[in-house]
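Everyone, carefully examine this protein record:
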Amino acid sequence: MLPEGGARQLAHAATTAASALQARSLLRATDPLAVHIGVLSLLAEQLRGLRPLPACAPVPRWSEADIAKLERAHALMQAEMAQTLTLDYLCAQVGLSLFKLKQGWRYRYSDSPQRTLLALRMQRAKLLLENGCQVAQAGWQTGYRHPANFSAAFSRYFGYAPKSVGRAGV
């Protein structure tokens, strides 16, 4: 739009039917808000033609062997959660690279390995506390060597302190 109320052609491509319709409605508009909406609509229509085509990202293919390795890593998390588990340790145990473990985990479980391990630990800790286990023992059995770190992680995850689970029956 030019200050005098006219329009200037900036492209030399054929005008689409949608753009022509927007331009005709813009020329008839008298309300300032309708003019602004029309200009933005016309601009959006023109910019659609300028956006790059989406790159066809290759979809990773996961073999049955890789899926089995991911499931083995998940089982290791459940079985050995009382130990200090690192991604490097899991990779070495199941035979995957760190990149492949992270990408495969997102594909298989729609989450990261770290968040999955945290969720497994917190669910087990809550179960232990509900069954009368002390806070420090529940923390130790789920991989926390310091009760304060366990309490902070538990409170952050569930929104209440672990000591309230056994007493209040949360």
The chain has nine helices and no strands. The CA atoms of residues 74 and 124 lie 14 Å apart. Residues 113-130 form the longest helix (18 residues). The two ends are 63 Å apart (CA to CA).
